[in-house]
Automatic annotation (TrEMBL):
It comes from Desulfomicrobium apsheronum. This is Histidinol dehydrogenase. The active site is at 332 (proton acceptor), 333 (proton acceptor). Its cofactor is Zn(2+). GO terms for cellular component: cytosol. Pfam families: Histidinol_dh. Pathway: Amino-acid biosynthesis; L-histidine biosynthesis; L-histidine from 5-phospho-alpha-D-ribose 1-diphosphate: step 9/9. Belongs to the histidinol dehydrogenase family.
Length: 436
């Protein structure tokens, strides 16, 4: 099985690693002209364009009036999935809600000096649009994507939440997606996907509301549309292909490590799975395990491309050096697979999420524990964070001063204004001094 074996002894080896790892080109430039056309067409022709694209790509007969999923179908979907599955989804949703409730920030005000009250209003956006990927023609419903995007929006207090997802060939959505929406109390769902769904949410159509923030993962057409709309509508993040980096000592189990690497490799041929260890024997065992476990995976073709092209086993002299490499990689998911993970947590500077110790496999975070699984990729964890309640909030500054404050400080404001050559600013304050 082709898989890179690398040596990292110091920062001198960094260039060799970045040269192939840090820019996984998904070919966004190639699809950009097509996506620009789609955006313009939906902006100008609304539902009609959305329905046309949907018929061309996803299901042959869908009229503009059929884009919205009837509310009754959403409620009924809960009867179409096994009750045990609904219970698992409810439990995951409760964990995710509990975690995100802790992120909620309150508005605050303060009185730093007599005559002045200052503060910050933390307000939810009015409307959010959530993209739920089709998942192999609707056959692998991305339940967790809906949970991870909708719950932070709900906790933020967003009043209008619209979900979009591409329909299956028969013009329906997977009942698991509808049932999850029903569990969450979401009843506004539109059957459309790809760049035209993102365009509809950004511009609004006859049936799809124009939203303030668009969140949710998707393929290259979805991602490119989101990238082109930055600045016109709030965008959660431009999430790239999944990544996992594991730092393991000799107490780690090679079978577990290989399974964890494959868990992300199966997402995408562009996914990246990196194992870093000072134990050469362990690295060799993991390599054997990867070949063994890969052979029985349904998504073997995807995972093997990811392993061959974007993954590696990296030998380091010690854990300290491994940690330095992790901080340079700034991975989306970082598994700290060592005997005493808490002893190392203070050294972690750049990672989307950290999975502590041998018994914390990454998929626990993907689905169930509570923290969000929409995380910064491609080294952007150096400066950005997981999707959160904040994604759906904005902060409005609050300033209140009285006449006494203007009397004490007004002339200083006027002086600063005149230093900038802005006379009208200065007079605005002086009006209150001269004509109280
Ligand atoms: N980062 C995360 O949290 C996360 C989670 C889940 C999925 N993902 C990613 O999301 C993506 C999901 O992809 P998917 O296919 O399952 O669903 P998707 O909904 O993103 O893509 C399917 C849509 O793209 C359209 N499409 C196909 N070919 C097209 C073309 N040539 N031009 C325009 N549109 C076209 C389809 O008709 C359909 O509407 C994957 O890349 C996966 O890695 C990321
Ligand atoms: N690991 C993905 C983010 O990189 C999220 C996900 C969704 N479903 C399973 N996993
Ligand atoms: Zn995953």
């Amino acid at each position: 099985m082709p898989l890179r074996l690398l040596e990292y002894t110091s920062s001198n080896d960094w260039a060799g690693i970045t040269s192939w790892l840090v820019r996984r080109d998904a070919g966004e430039d190639n699809v950009e002209p097509l996506v620009r056309d789609i955006l313009a067409n939906v902006r100008d022709r609304g539902d009609e364009a959305v329905a046309e694209y949907t018929c061309r790509f996803d299901c042959p007969s869908l009229t503009p009036t059929q884009l919205a999923v009837p509310k009754a179908n959403i409620a009924r979907a809960l009867e179409q999935i096994p009750a045990e599955d609904a219970d698992i989804i409810r439990e995951a949703a409760a964990n995710i809600r509990d975690f995100h409730l802790r992120q909620k920030q309150n508005s605050w005000i303060t009185t730093p000096a007599p005559g002045t009250t200052l503060g910050q209003l933390v307000l939810p956006v009015d409307r959010a649009g959530l993209y739920v990927p089709g998942g192999q023609g609707g056959e692998t419903p991305l339940i967790s994507s809906l949970l991870m995007n909708a719950i932070p929006a709900q906790v933020a207090g967003v009043k209008t939440i619209c979900v979009v997802s591409p329909p299956r060939k028969d013009g329906t959505l997977n009942p698991y997606i509808l049932a999850t929406a029903a569990i969450l109390g979401i009843d506004t769902i539109f059957m459309c996907g790809s760049a035209w769904a993102i365009a509809a949410l950004a511009y609004g159509t006859e049936s799809i509301p124009k939203v303030d923030v668009i969140a949710g993962p998707g393929n290259i057409f979805v991602t490119t549309a989101k990238r082109l709309l930055v600045g016109q509508v709030g965008i959660d993040m431009i999430a790239g292909p999944s990544e996992i980096a594991i730092l393991a000592d000799s107490t780690a189990n090679p079978k577990w490590l290989a399974a964890d690497m494959l868990s992300q490799a199966e997402h995408d041929p562009l996914a990246s799975s990196i194992l870093i260890s000072s134990d050469n024997h362990l690295l060799g065992e993991v390599k054997k395990e990867l070949a063994l476990q890969l052979s029985s995976l349904p998504r073997q073709e995807i995972a093997s491309k990811s392993l061959a092209e974007w993954s590696a086993l990296i030998h380091v002299p010690d854990i300290e050096t491994g940690m330095e490499l992790i901080n340079r990689l700034a991975p989306e998911h970082f598994e700290l697979s060592v005997a005493a993970p808490w002893a190392w947590i203070g050294s972690v500077r750049n990672a989307g999420a950290v999975f502590m110790g041998h018994s914390t496999p990454e998929p626990v975070g993907d689905y169930f524990a509570g923290p969000n699984h929409v995380l910064p990729t491609l080294s952007t964890a150096r400066f950005s964070s997981a999707l959160s309640v904040d994604t759906f909030c904005k902060k409005t500054n609050l300033i209140c001063t009285d006449q006494a404050y203007i009397g004490t400080h007004g002339s200083k404001v006027a002086r600063l204004a005149r230093l900038e050559g802005l006379e009208a600013h200065a007079r605005s304050v002086e009006q209150r001094l001269e004509n109280p």
